[in-house]
Structure formats: C-alpha cells, structure tokens
Amino acid sequence: MDIHRRRYLIAAVAASFASIPAASALAAPAHAVTVYKNRACGCCGGWIEHMRTNGFALRVYDVDDVTPHKQRLGVPMELASCHTAEVGGYAIEGHVPAADIRRLLAERPAAARGLALPGVVPSSPGMDGPRTAYATLMFDARGRSSIFARH
Q1: Residue 35 CB: number of other CB atoms within 10 A?
Q2: Which residue range is the domain that position 85 belongs to?
Q3: CB neighbourhood size of 113 (10 A)
Q4: Which of 3, 35, 119, 141 could crosslink 85 through cysteines, CB 3.0-4.6 Å?
Q5: Which 3 state secondary structure label does DSSP give 56?
Q6: Would residue 78 count as lying in a domain?
C-alpha cells in the first residue's frame, strides 16, 4: 500500500470517529418517567401521550389509589391532581407540561422536591378545554410552593 493511500485511509477512519460524540449526543436516552394513575381516570392518557411525543419514556401503572404514591414522593395534598409521576428523583403531580419537566431536569434546583399542576386545568397538556392561564408550581420537602412557570 502506498503512503498516499495509507494517509487517506487513516484520515477517513479518524473523521468517522470524530463524528461519534455528536451522533451519540443526538441519540441521548429519553428520561424514564414512572406514572401512577387511577385506572378509572380518562384524562391521564392525553398527558401520557404528550410526554411520549416530547421524547420521554414512560412506565405507566394503573392503580386503585394514587394517594400512597403521592405521600411517598412528598406531594402536598393541596397540590394534588389526578396522576403522580416521578422522573430524575423528582415528583411530578398532574398535567405538568413536558417543557417544564425538561427545565426542572436541566436546572436541578436544590430545594425542589417536584412540580405540580393542582387539579385539572382545562388547557393543560392532555386536556381539550378552552384556553386558560395557569401556573406550574415547584414545591419543596416542607410542602412550600412557588411559581415555576406561567402558561
């Protein structure tokens, strides 16, 4: 093999390896989300689809009572909604937008225990109601909450 051909092959192999980090960054694994929902609830499916569409990998458990999961994850009962999820060490309560969850996971605020969208907001992800302004709340281990995002 002549020297020019050898240099060409070495350059081609090096170039192919140089693109590996960029390709693997694009193919980063989805955040795993575990969802606990009441089997009788009809609105949770829309939120689950919203999360999947936004690149999250979900494990969904239909349960008779979601309350024990809310308590285990430290969700204040005044912030309760129809389903409870956990992702990246945080509790997610209700129809919280995927963008808010991504921001929480990127910023990882030290005091945060999770995010909540109390009740069932008609225009939140997975719901088909009229446009309504709402706020996603961040809560801490003591149950204190503050506005995390406005929609």
Answers
A1: 23
A2: 29-150
A3: 21
A4: 35
A5: coil
A6: yes
Q: Which two tokens stand for residue 95?
A: 């129809």
- For residues 145 and 79, is the Cβ–Cβ distance under 8 A? yes
Question: What CA–CA distance (Å, rounded) separates 107 from 86?
Answer: 16
DSSP code, position 36: E
- Both ends of the chain: CA-CA distance in Å? 65
Structure tokens at 13: 């192999």
**DSSP per-residue codes, 63-110:** ES--HHHHHHHT--GGG--SEEEEETTEEEESS--HHHHHHHHHH--T
Q: With respect to residue 117, please indicate whether it lies within any of the assigned structural domains.
A: yes
34: Cβ contacts below 8 Å, ≥ 6 apart: 58, 59, 61, 85, 86, 87
How crowded is residue 103: how many other Cβ atoms within 10 Å of its Cβ? 16
Domain count, the chain: 1
The domain that holds 104 is classified in CATH as: 3.40.30.10
Mean pLDDT, the chain cut into blocks of 10 residues (151 residues total): 46 41 46 94 92 97 96 97 97 98 97 95 92 96 97 96
Please check whether residue 23 lies inside any domain of the structure: no
**What global pTM score does this model have?**
0.80
